[in-house]
């Protein structure tokens, strides 16, 4: 059984999808959920599933090195880390310790629309297709090796909120499928 951690910063819908998946539960133990925002909804989701949490406020530390040192101590025995809406950039040192073991989900068809507000930017640009990408994390923002992508044709009769809902549904399905493949050694 693999040992994994999930890092999140917000509502935790991708966390919930992974943590609730019977397929993921059959392959891995979620040992910890790490969150950088006190009061984020993902904290309650993790607590409801009896998953250990580490919640920190970056402002309580002298610098990134200091809080990442504490995180690394908490996750030192993990096989993989899955980012699920974690809005902090991991340092080079952190990534070197977990090279090829940190996976992210991004709501665009990378390499297009890296960074924040990806769905909104793709929608406003009138893209024919909008989708999601799962990739390994490297030092470049949303620039690591792509593991999986999926997309749908945008219906511009739908509002941005409706399209965002479609993207999130797609994220949940694709993240579970790809995480399972990673945990089985297929990716």
TrEMBL record:
UniProt pathway: Purine metabolism; IMP biosynthesis via de novo pathway; N(2)-formyl-N(1)-(5-phospho-D-ribosyl)glycinamide from N(1)-(5-phospho-D-ribosyl)glycinamide (10-formyl THF route): step 1/1
Binding of (6R)-10-formyltetrahydrofolate, residues: 64, 87-90, 104
Coiled-coil segments: none
Domain Formyl transferase N-terminal residue range list: 2-177
GO cellular component: cytosol
PROSITE patterns referenced in this protein's UniProt entry, alphabetically: GART (PS00373)
Class in the EC hierarchy, top level: transferase
Stored PANTHER family: PHOSPHORIBOSYLGLYCINAMIDE FORMYLTRANSFERASE
Function: Catalyzes the transfer of a formyl group from 10-formyltetrahydrofolate to 5-phospho-ribosyl-glycinamide (GAR), producing 5-phospho-ribosyl-N-formylglycinamide (FGAR) and tetrahydrofolate.
NCBIfam families linked: PurN (TIGR00639)
Protein name, entry field: Phosphoribosylglycinamide formyltransferase
Organism listed in the record: Anaerococcus lactolyticus ATCC 51172
